[in-house]
Amino acid sequence: MGDSVRFGVDQVVAGLERLPAGPLAMLTNDSARLAHRPDVASRSALLDAGVDITKLFSPEHGLRAVAADGTHVADGRDQLTGLGVTSLYGDRLAPTREQLDGVEAVIVDLPDAGARFYTYVWTMTHVLDACAAAGAPVIVLDRPNPIGGDMRDAEGPLLDDDYHSLLGRAPFPIRHSLTIGEIAGVWQREHTPSLELRLVPCANWRRDMHWADTGLAFVPMSPALSSYETALCYPGICLFEATNVDVGRGTNRPFRQLSAAWLDAARVAEACADHERLRGLSLEAEGTTLRLSIRDRRAIRPVRAGVTLLETIRRIHGEHFRWATYPTVANPSGEGHFERLAGTRSLRALIDSGAAIPDSAFSVGDGAQRTSAARLYEA
Question: Which of 181, 244, 260, 323 is 20 to 30 Å apart from 79, CA to CA?
Fold first, then answer.
């Protein structure tokens, strides 16, 4: 495969990295596939390669990655491998000590969207906590960040301590520019130093690469995260989840359109025309729907774009716009959803005040965590 991008799992299947003898458990779902065989689930490929996986854990959306956002997922059995599956987005968020008894290590192979509030990585941190307590090593098979790893593209705000949840458990910015393996490394150093953690890195992935640069097929990560274009818009447009504006779930343009019965899309598009914070995007109005298209993927700053659209719609349609709850398994009341997404109370207050949003609202601080995480592959 030459210089083509390969995932951590590909390194194992090719015999370039070895995993310990089992029995092993695995946190994964159907969206974790081989890089050049998107028809092959990683758990199946590992079993075929002789890896002794005996039980599975699944994150939000379940093992098949098709359950609706925020809904309870029950335990079950994997139709592909016949293994039992414990849901970590149902009756529990972490494995129990008993479920880890007799396990030599836990493998983690999950994609990530590159947005701090995508829950898969935080389910992983619950597994890291449980494994640290049980004395079970963890092996993370890394995957590219689909919207790039350039640290200069990271956008805040950083997560405040008051808003730790399954949408974020550490002070990362919304667009974090890290891989899931790097996040595991940061978590281990800062929260579970006793944990034996091993990262199996990607091959031939560079930090400046977006998914479109890899030449690989994009496998949907969940029902709404269905394309690279969606993933690129998601860190900003997902903020509308906490409002009465629809983000396009269930359509062929999730997180790339906004709609409401009262939305004057043409007026919003005109108000945002040539706005610096929307560079790289074009807006198309069609009645009560505003569609977003990507013109220059490297120019896009999705958090800035999402906040700009949010404050513009709030200003133009103040009589109709409302903040809304968003009940989920992890937050049954749905209260405070915007603060959990944004990571701070101040952004909503700024939007409600009608004041201009300063550049400091998107600050990622001194970047110490991000810089130390980036050094993981250099060590």
Answer: 181
